[in-house]
Amino acid sequence: MSLEYKIVNVVATCDLGVRINLANYARTNVASVQYNPDVFRAAITRLKDPSSTILVFHTGRLVITGAKTCDTARSQADRMKRLLKIRKAPMSFKVQNIVTTASCHKSINLVALYAQIVTHAQDKIKSVTYEVEIFSGLQIKLNQGCIIVFSSGKIIVTGFTSRSLINECYDEISSFLTQYGSSFIRASSIGI
After folding, report:
1. What distance lies between CA 151 and its chain's CA centroid?
2. Coiled-coil region(s) at which residues (predicted)?
3. According to the model, what pLDDT value does residue 192 have?
4. 124 and 174 housed in the same domain
5. Distances from the Cα of 27 to the Cαs of 16, 85, 125, in angstroms?
6. Which single residue of 8, 35, 59, 185 could bond 181 by disulfide (Cβ 3.0 to 4.6 Å)?
């Protein structure tokens, strides 16, 4: 079973290497910047086309969220550099997290999936948790990253920092679904 995933969020950080006067920055960009230092120490900048949110700290550090690709996150860092009128290149840029979603388009018996993971994949994971009273998804913690599976067949993969690691993760998920899926994938697409 092959899974097609979609990137829904890229989180990246950037250090511009200069201090920023956030009060002046917020005053000159009222339409797109929210700044209240009594509530939160960063200026919140909402950019459009493409849409993303950037937290700007007085230290010159940025946290970029909402980008759909790593390249978009980097271009948003460059866009912020221009908006802040900083001429030098960013000192650092690092993707911290990529969140993806996929669907197997079938409902899944999470109790049976849990049993299959414990039986056949314990050596490949750090832990697996399914406590429906606390959270409706089955959580699989890996050395790097986390997989969340819902009874609807929706799968979320988070905690990875590169497409190649995400591709490897989805290849493993697809292989596991192909090999053991008959014991936990339901014939109908009706959820639990």
Report:
1. 20
2. none
3. 38
4. yes
5. 20, 14, 49
6. 185
> Where do the DSSP E strands lie in 16-60?
33-34, 43-47, 52-56
134 to each of 30, 109, 130, 131, 139, how far by Cα in Å? 41, 17, 9, 6, 11
Cis peptide before 37 (omega within 30 of 0): no
Number of compact structural domains in the chain: 2
User: What are 102's two structure tokens?
Assistant: 């996929």
Per-residue pLDDT tens over the stretch 41-83: 999 999 998 999 999 999 999 999 999 999 999 999 999 998 8
Question: Is position 5 within any domain?
Answer: no
| pLDDT (mean) for 82-101 | 88
Residue 189 counted as domain residue: no
How long is the chain? 192
List the one residue out of 121, 100, 93 whose CA is nearest residue 166.
100
**What pTM value is reported for the model?**
0.88
CA-to-CA separations, 98 to 114, 153, 154, 180, in angstroms, rounded:
25, 20, 17, 27
Which amino acid is it at 130?
A: Y
Domain residues for the domain of 42 are 11-96
Give the CATH number of the domain where residue 86 resides.
3.30.310.10
